[in-house]
Design brief:
It comes from Mizuhopecten yessoensis (Japanese scallop). Helix content is 6%, strand content 38%. It is built from four helices and 32 strands.
Amino acid sequence: MDFGGPMTFALSLDSVLSGHENWIYSVRWQPPKITDSGYQQPMRLLSASMDKTMILWKPDQDTGVWVEEVRVGEVGGNTLGFYGGMFSPHGDAIIAHGYQGAFHHWSHDKIGETWQPIPTTSGHFGDVQDLSWDPSDGQYVVSVSLDQTTRLHAPWVRSGQQTSWFEIARPQVHGYDLQCLALVHKYSMATGADEKVVRVFEAPTNFIQNFCSICGTDLNKELQKEVAKNRPDGASVPALGLSNKAVFSEQGKLPVPAEGEIQPHPNDQYPEVYFQSVHMKEPPTEEHLLQNTLWPETQKLYGHGYEIFSLACDPQGTVLASACKAAKAEFAGVILYDTKTWSQQGTLEGHSLTVTHIAFSHSGQFLLTVSRDRTWVLYKRRNKDATDTEPLFSKMAATDKKSAVHTRIIWSCAWSHDDKYFFTAARDKKVLVWRRPDLFSPGGDMVGKPIGMIDVGESATAVDVAPVQMSNNRKDENILEGK
């Protein structure tokens, strides 16, 4: 800045602002306002601290002493504090960001002269490992991440305003990195992490109520369904625990705090995050996502010798398939569970290394697996008139070391909309198209011969196919028939 020549400045201590209980990571002046006479600098200062709060300071008009005008932030919870805060350009909103990648947003209500929390963007702060759409009508999407959380995103539907997507629930906050998930039905899901257990979760009543309110869905229709009956209100995480414990309305919960306030737990060393039933018409803030949107854990499924790596559920929601990391064939089996009783229905053998992806056909009659051993195996479901003594799925076709076309790890697979073809994607930069073996003419061995190939130029780590054929999509029958 040019002052027109040499100048001398004298600095003196004006005031010490004391109010935070932990390190202060950010201080910001409120932006200047433009008036008829030029810029007017409001005397307000915003400080953000690791004590999970931000304080807005201003000098008292009579004494000139700096005082705390308002304090906002988290109360309780299991997060670290704020690493920074700032004003909006007009000074009518403030935002903070924390260690776990979350934003905390407050807007100034000029009528009530208060600062109100408002919905803001949120999401994973670690690599997303898997995601799945609501299997019934695609109203939401769920994802799991190496940040050890499961997050549910859905549209916020408002009359006369544009629909936008927000995170509306965090069903699982875990102690292990999450690797995979499968939705059994609209209000039930299974997840796998770096542990030997598959965990099953059911949506609580409070989530269904808030989901319908935010997304514009008829709550009465949802509650009338058998799948939405006799559910707990929500879930909480016991101190030092990994399982989400169901909370029912008749249980002795802490007193319901005032609106927007989160009740802390008296044990500061090992706090338990208590659930409080909150009815929302807008997406929840970070504080509510952490405390009030967990899904109760209903089942733990055992049987694997190493960390869970892949999950899938058939379209009918009757069979859950899981696989774990494996360096030997004895651990590379795919375990099948009955989703009604959650009992094991058998183990599918066929691979010698980790099964990286499992895909059921749209009809549920076929199950396809691909592996680090560079092969795929196709299984067929038993006929309806078969006895229960027969395996639920049996091997129908497979490639081996001699017939394998992929030269590197196969990472993903998918079925065409009509279940006549399937696709495999591998690290060898190829996506191969295969015709279902039973559709070839008798006498021809076509198991090890793909009918099409796409060279993607880079390692192909994921593949999927639209569940219906697009009306403007030209289907090249010559390629698909292998001519």
